[in-house]
Amino acid sequence: MMPAMPARDARPILVVDDDPKIVALVRTYLERERYSVISAGDGRAAIRAIEEADPRLVVLDLMLPEIDGLAVIRRARAAGDTPILVLSARGTVGDRILGLSEGADDYLPKPFSPAELVVRVRSILRRTEQAAAPEAAVLVLEDLELDLARHQVRVAGRPVALTALEMRLLGALLLANGRVLDRDGLLDALYGHGDGDVTDRAIDVYVKRLREKLGDGPTAPRYVATVRGVGYRAAGPVRRRERSG
User: Fold this and answer.
1) Which domains does the chain have, with CATH numbers?
2) pLDDT tens, position by position, 129-166
3) 94 touches 196 (CB < 8 A)
4) Which residues, given as ranges, of the chain have pLDDT below 50?
């Protein structure tokens, strides 16, 4: 008998669903790819597992006993930036926008293709772990400073708490340095793939929430400007400053 292949990373992927068949299916496909997998059957157990196991990624159902999935996302985002892939039968456009706006990194409706789930897991991990690689500079726009490597944003020296998705959205706009990004391009920057069902509405919701957190506005923007009929861009020139320490 051949020895089992080692796991890719000591930190596990957490699968949260109250249907044991779904958990078993997702576990089978992820373990084939040599990911370590743990599971939880309700929202309370999910929060405990996130706090104790520090998973690389969470695959999360929304309709959970004890505590629902949206509350789990909020608790996870209050504690850190663990990537979250929602896997839910609640698959309307509104449900997707709500889940993503609360801080999920991606949304896959049920019924789902296990092979597609694996592709999305790879994409999320590649994107988030590359973003965590060391960077030499901080992006600066007016009095806004973005340190992608440290997941830190400051406005006039004041820390601003952003979700991982909002951080990537702001990063994409600042890295473009004035170039206009249309909604399809921003969706690709956020998820690594397009989703025609949610593109226009979702991006507009994300930008609105980002502006609110930054204290920005659409009429006289300092950070995120709207280009009508096209998309969004940084509202001024972006410079790079060497990180201290």
Assistant:
1) 13-131 (3.40.50.2300), 137-242 (1.10.10.10)
2) 655 554 557 899 999 999 877 788 999 999 998 887 88
3) no
4) 1-8, 134, 194-199
